[in-house]
Amino acid sequence: MSKVRYLEPLPEPIDVAEFRKVVHSRRSVRNFTNKPIPAETLNDCLNMAMLAPNSSNLQQWEFYLVQSADKKAKLVEACLSQNAAKSAAELIVIVARTKSWREHARLVLEQWPQAQVPKLVKQYYAQLAPFYYWQGPLNSWGMVKKALTTVSGFVRPVPRGPFSQADMKVWAAKSVALAAENLMLALRAHGFDSCPMEGFDEVRVNKILKLPKDAFVVMVIGAGERTPDGVYYPQLRFDQQKFIHRV
Ligand SMILES: Cc1cc2nc3c(=O)[nH]c(=O)nc-3n(C[C@H](O)[C@H](O)[C@H](O)COP(=O)(O)O)c2cc1C
What we know:
Elements: H1 16-25, H2 39-49, E1 61-66, H3 69-78, H4 83-86, E2 90-97, H5 101-110, H6 119-133, H7 140-152, H8 165-189, E3 193-197, H9 202-209, E4 215-224
Antiparallel strand pairs: 1-2, 2-4, 3-4
This protein binds flavin mononucleotide.
Flavin mononucleotide binds near residues 30, 82, 84, 195 and 235.
């Protein structure tokens, strides 16, 4: 038996029918009423977004609430003037960072929620995280890691990345997309709706938000109350059989 590290209180039973209602009623909404999302509701949704699982708990996300009229107009244009952006009560730009991990590794150790930081945790954030996530100048360390991994991979299972800035983008985007989904489901649970958008001009959005160099936009979410004609088509998903492989 493994050593008990911590006992999380058991979760309360959950009404699956209510959860199903949230998941099933979430649709990409392209037309919103002008009802605002109350600040505390939006805040609650953002808190739930930030509870998404994320790689190494390094919390690679940032959420830009674009609320000034001037920036909002520019962002709508950068979103190719899509209706989902034009009519949205809120525009939230979901951003991933590939270089915030070092600061966040330090914060994990500083803000650890127990009196003592366990030795394994200390080792992970002080040594292993930099080993995995630092790629070195001109990707030099990434290339060394790749070579070392290829050799040791012949004899034992090893993580095959991230070894480059491109890998780091995929690494960050995975976690950040999960936060985006949490955000959209939380909005739905509060009676609001959303539309995720990747139809935007990335260069223009970066400029509007003055994003740091290691930041990139994963998606822009338009949010608000749906109009009766806000969902354009019935929902379509292919048959489970096509996607589920039991091996
Ligand atoms: C990463 C991503 C990017 C998307 N980009 C857009 C977009 O730019 N404009 C849009 O109207 N819908 C966009 N969508 C919404 C999809 O078209 C939609 O999720 C899909 O058609 C399924 O419909 P449903 O969300 O109502 O189930 C995007 C969805 C995702 C996940």
